[in-house]
User: Which sequence fits this backbone?
């Protein structure tokens, strides 16, 4: 079953009323908090382990009511239900969208849809768990040392070769869960077709203890296949250099069998590359690349952190899926955050959205979210092909705090643009270090450094919300001429997300939260958040242009004058 004609959200009564509220909207966070001592409690919500405070955002009861009404008018809940049941809501590719099925517990009771549900003839749960079991068994072999390289040594380094969703998810989660990584196993991630990437990532590695995972949904991605060939070449050359293998086909094939595995939906192409299908882990076309971190695409991470932690990771996703499915819209965190983003971007004309993790281990989370949000919702037509009637997509960016504070926060605090920001932190750090010296002034000896870190987290959202008035600046004895430069307007909206610790479950929860925020926004805009046609033209043209860049005069002559001149200059600089 395919999707019906999307509701044009801009034609709804709620949209019109929101436009009315936005017209001349003048937020007053100081006033709102002063007038309502319950404001923080009223707008703080719990989703699994995530405490989400929306009170420093531009919400009032009227706005919240209208946003929830808009979510109702566009049937966010009904479409979510259709998604998890396997309807083909990825219309342009005529596919189901079932990443939520990747994390359903085995033989779970009370599941919706019920355990064993069938989509397009496939028993989804059975296939998901059969693959998980295969990944777990393989991961255990690598972790225990039972899996040996061609010379009988255990694996010490796992190199994941993939790009986009086949890279950003695994690398982000690996970094986030570093404290859970088994000693003696390191993962590296190669993505870019710039040869410097694979050069650097293989630098210093021992081929006898290195395992490559070629991760590609389609197994047709130029970057990944090129890097996989370079890795295979590297393996053969290095093993031959130490006389571990000779150069016969059999020996080379034997080396690949011990040092290469693959993750893909295209197992025929995996075999054609020379990887034994026994050493390949599948998934299905109903998992979008950017929604695939919890599929077999995460095999590198399963090896690193182990199956038990991976199960916790999946349980975290599922907890948020259940929150999304069962919580009334008024308290439904992904829906509220998604609707708030619509309020900021469509009505208040915010041009971008910062995501600022106060957890160093989440340093790749903003990059991960860029693909999730922008590849999903950067569209100009709706799922029925009609043009969208409002702006879509959000530009996500960010860096971990406190680093960002010393870089771009100036613009968030005092610039002219509205930049809603999500602040994400955990209460219990992996390493609770203390500063036993102190600084003789503000920092006492014995200071808990994470507490100091978190003081920044709390202070930033406070400063952004409430600012500093000219009178407050003057009261500090500031010279009048400098007062304007030192005023903070406040009324800069933030969302604070606080979790107990950066556990595998919490990382899963955070990812699922943003997946469903993206879903909510996509539904409001009426777009297919699960295709990515916008990446295709560049890929096609790269292949068309490639001969010219390699010196083919005829292809070069056929280019437009700018491209021709640039390629000619490149060839000149390469000395060609
Ligand atoms: O080019 C975009 C894209 O298709 C992403 O959607 C995807 O995550 C990435 O390329 C990698 O694709 P694959 O896993 O098929 O190699």
Assistant:
């Amino acid at each position: 079953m395919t999707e019906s004609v999307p509701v044009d959200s801009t034609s709804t009564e709620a949209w019109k009323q929101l436009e009315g509220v936005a017209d001349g909207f003048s937020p007053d966070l100081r006033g709102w908090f002063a007038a309502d001592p319950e404001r923080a409690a009223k707008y703080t919500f719990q989703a699994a382990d995530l405490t989400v405070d929306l009170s420093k955002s531009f919400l009032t009861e009227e706005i919240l009511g209208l946003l929830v009404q808009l979510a109702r008018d566009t049937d966010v809940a009904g479409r979510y239900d259709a998604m998890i049941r396997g309807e083909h809501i990825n219309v342009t590719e005529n596919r189901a969208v079932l990443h939520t099925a990747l994390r359903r517990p085995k033989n779970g009771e009370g599941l919706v849809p019920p355990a064993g549900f069938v989509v397009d003839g496939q028993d989804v749960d059975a296939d998901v768990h059969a693959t998980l079991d295969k990944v777990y068994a393989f991961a255990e072999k690598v972790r225990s040392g039972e899996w040996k390289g061609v010379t009988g040594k255990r694996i010490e380094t796992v190199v994941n070769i993939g790009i986009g969703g086949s890279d950003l998810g695994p690398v982000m989660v690996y970094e986030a869960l570093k404290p859970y990584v088994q000693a003696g196993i390191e993962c590296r991630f190669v993505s870019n077709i710039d040869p410097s990437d694979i050069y650097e990532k293989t630098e210093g590695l021992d081929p006898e203890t290195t395992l490559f995972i070629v991760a590609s949904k389609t197994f047709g991605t130029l970057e990944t296949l090129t890097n996989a060939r370079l890795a295979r070449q590297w393996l053969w050359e290095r093993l031959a250099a130490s006389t571990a293998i000779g150069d016969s086909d059999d020996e080379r094939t034997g080396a690949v069998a011990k040092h290469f595995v693959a993750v893909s939906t295209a197992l025929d192409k995996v075999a054609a590359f020379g990887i034994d299908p026994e050493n390949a882990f599948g998934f299905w076309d109903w998992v979008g690349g950017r929604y695939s971190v919890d599929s077999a695409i995460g095999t590198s991470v399963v090896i690193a952190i182990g199956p038990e932690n991976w199960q916790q990771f999946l349980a975290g996703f599922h907890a948020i899926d259940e929150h999304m499915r069962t919580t009334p819209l008024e308290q439904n965190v992904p829906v509220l955050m998604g609707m708030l983003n619509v309020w900021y971007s469509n009505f208040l004309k915010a041009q971008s959205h910062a995501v600022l993790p106060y957890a160093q281990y989440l340093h790749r989370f903003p990059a991960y979210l860029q693909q999730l949000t922008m590849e999903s919702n950067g569209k100009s037509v709706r799922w029925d092909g009609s043009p969208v009637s409002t702006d879509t997509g959000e530009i996500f960016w960010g860096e971990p705090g406190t680093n960002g504070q010393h870089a771009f926060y100036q613009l968030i605090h005092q610039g002219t643009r509205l930049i809603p920001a999500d602040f994400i932190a955990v209460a219990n750090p992996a390493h609770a270090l203390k500063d036993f010296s102190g600084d003789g002034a503000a920092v006492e000896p014995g200071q808990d450094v994470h507490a100091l870190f978190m003081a920044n987290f709390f202070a930033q959202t406070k400063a952004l919300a409430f600012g500093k008035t000219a009178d407050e600046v003057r009261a500090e004895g500031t010279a009048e001429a400098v007062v304007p430069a030192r005023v903070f307007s406040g009324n800069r909206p933030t969302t604070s997300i606080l979790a107990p610790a950066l556990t595998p479950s919490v990382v899963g929860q955070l990812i699922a939260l943003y997946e469903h925020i993206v879903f909510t926004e996509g539904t409001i805009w009426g777009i297919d958040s699960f295709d990515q046609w916008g990446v295709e033209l560049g890929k096609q043209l790269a292949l068309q242009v490639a001969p010219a860049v390699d010196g083919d005069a005829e292809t070069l002559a056929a280019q437009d004058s700018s491209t021709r001149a640039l390629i000619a200059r490149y060839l000149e600089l390469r000395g060609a």
Residues 162-166, 216-218, 221, 224, 289-290, 375, 532, 535 surround 6-O-phosphono-beta-D-fructofuranose (CB under 6 Å). The CA atoms of residues 355 and 398 lie 5 Å apart.
